[in-house]
Write a structure and sequence with these properties.
2 domains, Rossmann fold, seven-stranded antiparallel β-sheet, alpha/beta, nine-stranded mixed β-sheet, Beta-Lactamase, 16 strands, elongated, 13 helices
Length: 449
């Protein structure tokens, strides 16, 4: 196997800052990589700075020994290339560090690496993998810390990287060779950031009040619609002192609450989402978050958790393009019409293509906020907010809200007082969105009037 199993090319919409190497430079790199491997052997070097120091020393010795001259700039990029090949993750290292990227995709050898940019969509890069073994070595290097490997006997790999990124890879006979990495923002979005996805101050003020009360909410949408990201941001509305139990298959929820318990499934040990949901019933949580509900048993366990009322609120994400599709999926998985009352609110967020200025752009928008109600053996959808494409935001509908009625009744208030409070919070949010440097702190400091 060659240590440099990739090639820098001239084309590419996204430029990875890597130097195109000559054949002589590749020979030097191959030699120093072998010397580095012989030097460290089975020793695990946890510190990248230490690895660079060793590499730089070996490189200078190699150049002197072979009477090869190199200037300071050349030594730097040769050191970088050796570091990427031996210690880091090759060209993927730079992509993993870019917080503007959501997805990294390798679709085979001899084809550019692709990235999905948060603002520009899919872009091809100026680097492609050329050697199968080099890419497989990088995949296994990335999953080493969690004790997994991709091999001919195990040609599929799904793993969570230490930084929370989600890794998926397959080799033959499943595919020729492919890799996908789903990245998550290092700095979580705030409710202010949700304005870009169609949320306005009126809807956010409404959700703020709902999240502060004992209500169960499902956030649904299609793949990569930002369901988890939205739930992360909306948890800014949950009092910071509450105890949160997070149940996930892949750790993606990042909330500011210190009193949180994270639990995740483990298929190899037979620990399913249903088991974690049942465990949560014994943990006295203030809130329960179920990261992703997929199967029939998970759906029924979620409904059981919502009906049990052991927490102030149960929150889950599900795949569904619309509230109507969500209802169909729940009914298909044998959720009884009488159990739909356990779901207080549904938020639907969509990822879709939008035509603007002669261009096609992928966008994410909240398209529905609604309540579900049993009606003559069926389910009626009451839309409270709906997306208006012309205004590019949601608008409130005339429909009455059952949840608002319940909050008003529980507090002995007139509904008009609730709507006055929502209007007050809406104005407050507009003010802090314009000038606040710490949205979370300002939300916490708000006093109910």
């Amino acid at each position: 196997m060659g240590w440099i199993g990739w090639e820098v090319i001239n084309e590419g919409q996204y430029k990875i800052p890597m130097q195109k190497l000559s054949s002589d430079e590749k020979d030097v790199i191959e030699g120093v990589c072998k010397e580095f491997s012989d030097t460290v052997k089975d020793e695990v070097i946890e510190n990248g700075a230490v690895a660079r120091e060793i590499i730089n020393k070996l490189l200078v010795q190699h150049l002197n020994k072979n009477r090869i001259s190199a200037d300071e700039e050349q030594i730097k990029y040769l050191t970088d290339a050796i570091f990427l090949a031996t210690y880091a993750y090759g060209p993927l290292t730079y992509l993993l560090e870019d917080d503007m990227l959501e997805e990294i995709a390798v679709v085979g050898l001899g084809t550019p690496i692709y990235v999905f940019h948060r603002e520009k969509g899919w872009l091809d890069t100026n680097v492609m993998f050329t050697e199968r073994d080099a890419l497989i070595d990088i995949i296994n290097k990335m999953s080493r810390k969690i004790g997994r490997r991709i091999t001919l006997q195990n040609p599929r790999l799904n793993a969570v990287l230490p930084d929370g990124s989600r890794l998926h890879a397959t080799i033959e006979p499943v595919s020729d060779l492919e890799l996908t990495i789903r990245k998550f923002k290092k700095v979580p979005l705030t409710v202010r950031d949700l304005v870009k996805t169609g949320y306005n101050a009126d809807l956010l003020a409404f959700l703020w009040l709902i999240f502060q009360n004992d209500k169960n909410i499902i956030v649904c949408g299609n793949t990569a619609a930002g369901k988890t990201t939205t739930l992360n941001a909306l948890f800014s509305f949950v009092p910071i002192t509450e105890r949160i139990v997070l149940l996930e298959e892949t750790p993606e929820i990042v909330i500011p609450h210190k009193h949180q318990v994270k639990m995740k499934t483990n298929p190899s040990l037979g620990i399913r989402m249903k088991d974690l949901i049942e465990d949560s019933l014994r943990m006295r949580p203030d809130r329960v978050i179920i990261g992703e509900v997929r199967s029939k048993e998970e759906i029924l366990a979620m409904i059981e958790s919502m009906n049990a009322g052991q927490a102030r609120g149960c929150y889950a994400t599900m795949h569904a393009h619309s509230a109507k599709e969500l209802v169909s999926r729940l009914r298909y998985n044998e959720v009884m019409p009488s159990d739909f009352s356990a779901i207080d609110l549904v938020i639907v967020q969509r990822r879709f293509l939008k035509f603007s200025g002669g261009k096609v752009k992928e966008t994410r928008k909240v398209v529905e906020v609604c309540e579900l109600a049993e009606s003559r053996g069926g389910i009626t959808i009451h839309h409270l907010f709906q997306y208006d494409p012309k205004k590019d935001t949601v608008v409130r509908t005339p429909a009455k809200s059952r949840v608002i009625e319940e909050i008003a009744f529980a507090n002995g208030w007139a509904e008009s007082k609730i709507y006055e409070e929502i209007a007050r919070r809406s104005n407050y949010l507009k003010a802090i969105f314009a000038k606040s440097k710490n949205i979370q702190k300002d939300i916490e400091s708000y006093g109910f009037q």
